[in-house]
Specification:
Order of helices and strands: EEHEHEHEEEEHEHEHHEH
Strand order of the largest sheet: 1-2-8-5-4-3-9-10-11
CATH topology: Rossmann fold
Number of strands: 11
Helix content: 25-40%
Length: about 250
């Protein structure tokens, strides 16, 4: 683990970041970033580059009226992949628009992202999102290398407090993200109507025909589906999970 360092984005925004090489370093890394353990945690996974502008506009109320108010009210932390794309961008923008102060932590494989002012490590490297407050940079140069790290950061940060994963849209990597959360015993809310993997998982929850990978992930009591056009439903189900026993 290296010493935390600032990332300075355009417009004067700054986030603190740390490189981590081993999972056992995570508790100390989170402490070094000023993040306190034993707080409710929301993990956001799902669509990144596969979301077009129309999708982003359609899903934005889900973040502005569903996710962010709950996270803010419960003084929870949020964790995602940290890039300026798709659902991660939507969460960052909604947090900033609401002037919320909850920690928004991006966990990204260092070989897949471009740091502000830095050179891209690969042609399709993604820029980090300037509306995030902290970043944990982990080993890996392939998309999806961060999946098990995201799950472990959530577990370490939540401690004895409840946590939940919210799946919005998503491609192939989303299946791994969901599996990692379930392996950790973390409840998953899949947003039906948000597209792709989330819709497949929602169909499986309701016993309808779905991708066999989605069917295999459905665990009674751990996976629930909520509709994309009902922000209140998402908020109420998420609140119930995060205020229950850890």
């Amino acid at each position: 683990m290296t010493t935390p360092f600032p990332l300075r984005f355009a417009g004067g925004r700054t986030a603190m970041a740390v490189h981590v090489d081993q999972p056992g370093e995570l508790p100390a890394a989170l402490t070094s970033l000023g993040l306190q353990a034993s707080q409710p945690v929301v993990v956001l996974v799902g669509g990144a580059g596969g979301l077009d502008p129309a999708d982003l506009d359609r899903l934005r109320p889900l973040f502005e009226s569903g996710l962010v108010p709950v996270i803010k009210h419960l003084r929870a932390a949020a964790i995602d992949g940290g890039t300026c794309s798709g659902v991660m961008r939507l969460l960052g923008e909604a947090r900033s628009s609401a002037r919320s102060d909850f920690p928004l932590i991006g966990v990204a494989a260092a070989g897949t992202v471009t740091l502000p002012g830095g050179q891209p490590p690969r042609d399709d490297a993604a820029p980090l999102d300037p509306d995030h407050t902290h970043f944990v940079l982990v080993p890996g140069d392939e998309w999806g290398a961060e999946a098990h790290w995201i799950a472990q950061v959530a577990t370490d940060l939540a401690g004895i407090r409840p946590s939940a994963t919210v799946l919005v849209n998503g491609g192939e990597i989303a299946y791994s993200d969901v599996e990692r959360s379930l392996d950790a015993g973390r409840p998953v809310l899949t947003v039906a109507g948000s597209g792709r993997t989330a819709d497949q998982l929602a169909a499986a929850v309701h016993g309808r025909p779905a991708d066999e990978r989605a069917v295999a992930l459905v665990k009674p009591g751990l996976v629930q589906a909520v509709p994309a056009d009902d922000q209140g439903r998402l908020a109420s189900v998420l609140s119930a999970i995060l205020t229950g026993p850890g």
